[in-house]
Amino acid sequence: MFSLFLVTPLKLMLLGLIAILGVAIVRYSWVAFSGELERGRFLRALLMTICAVVLVIISNHLLIFWMAWMGVSLSLHRLILFYPQRPRAHLAAHKKFLLARLSELLLAVAFIILYNEFHTANIHILVQQAEQTRGNWSMSTAAVLLVLVALIKCAQLPMHGWLIQVVEAPTPVSALLHAGIVNLGGILLLFFAPILASSSAACWLLVVLAGTSATIAGLITTTRMSIKVKLAWSTSSQMGLMLVEIALGLYEMALLHLFAHSFYKSYSFLNSGNTVNHYLAEKLAGEVKSKLSHWVIAMTLSALLIAIAQWQFAMMTSMAATVLVWFAFAALIVPSVTRWDHGSLACVAITLMFAAALLTLYTIAKHHLAVLMGLDAPLNHSADGFVALLFCSLFALSLALQYWPHVGWIKHLFIWLNAGAYLDEWATRLTLKLWPSKNLLALQHTQWHINTEAKS
């Protein structure tokens, strides 16, 4: 009985994360739906979803894991359709439902292959045996299937449309989805990391697809004005980064990314109402746009900071991780060097001290999480270089969109990005052609009659 469930230090950390997010989202929902007659129905579906996520984390049996994985999707479906009169909510739920069934089918096939290979349904024993087994065709096939499941769950392009349209659901649903459920793809790969590491084909597949998705989604984020839609595109991009880190074997960095993203997105969605006020306050205060020279100064200071840390602690082993941290610190420093006055020197000093503290915290957290994970995979330097090139492209193109918007090819790029690369339109047409939604068609027909009567 007890072998069906297992709590390791890693799972205990994840359970703590779920508990914190769950309490915050349930408390927010209790207040936000105080005037709703259906508050009880919403809270029941919310708690059912959280319980299913907990069951996924503690499961130590392939069948229980798969059933809990399916339970998360089915309970989330009820939350997405909490307001059933919204056509976009129906469209998002329909696409999510079909993709979820596909991911469950792929996951079931992967689990059957692993069971036949290792002759056990105990996940802990299976993973231990995989660490000691040389990769073969069966493990490589299972690894590729797990990668496809993770890509679907993490809403990578072109399977991202439902995540963008889920903003039609209530805010607590968006917070739960973006801060917790969408991370399950990364958690799946972390749990079965030795199987993924045994297949270079699966790792390369994850690097190329997730890296490309992260780059395109990150650029699309810069073209969006709606707060919740911007956050949704950001989630797709961040999930791509996390999956790339897992593919490179940077498990501790991926886990740190997962925790930071969860807390940030839950706060951002639950506080999205105040974001508009903050945006207006910045406009009234007189926003000063950074120049390219400011970015050069910020990147130089960021590079010096990382070089000193590398000289003292030798903490960076991945080129892609170094480039990512370099750009992140440059973005942190650039506001302090943009508005130059008599107090700017002190502002820059404080910012650099804050950046150094973050770098120290990152180093400590990375070290302890590496011990907690207890996994070690050799770094693929070719894949690492490819990802570093993608990060450089993302940074360069985002600056080009900001500073040279009237150049011909950049203008065309902006239009393409502003349309979401047209990927979701094709995915939606294909989905509705292969498997039409009767509820969605009926709702659109009713909405058309209401609009016609209103105009007449």
What integer is the average pLDDT? 86
Number of helices: 21
Q: Spans with pLDDT under 50 lasting ≥5 residues?
A: 445-456
> What is the count of β-strands?
0
* DSSP helix fraction: over 70%
How far apart the termini lie comes to 66 Å
- Sheet with the most strands, sense and barrel status: none
Give the ordered list of helices and strands. Answer: HHHHHHHHHHHHHHHHHHHHH
Radius of gyration based on Cα positions: 23 Å
Strand content: under 5%
Structural class: mainly alpha
Principal-axis shape equals globular
Overall structural domain count: 2
Model description:
- The chain is mainly alpha-helical and 456 residues long.
- It has two domains: 2-271, no CATH class; 289-423, no CATH class.
- Helices cover 79% and strands 0% of the residues.
- It is built from 21 helices and no strands.
- The termini are far apart.
- Mean pLDDT is 86; it is low at 445-456.
- It is a multi-pass membrane protein.
- Part of an energy-coupled inorganic carbon pump.
- It comes from Celerinatantimonas yamalensis.
- Belongs to the inorganic carbon transporter (TC 9.A.2) DabB family.
- The chain crosses the membrane at residues 12-30, 42-58, 96-115, 135-152, 173-193, 199-220, 241-264, 292-311, 318-337, 343-365, 386-404.
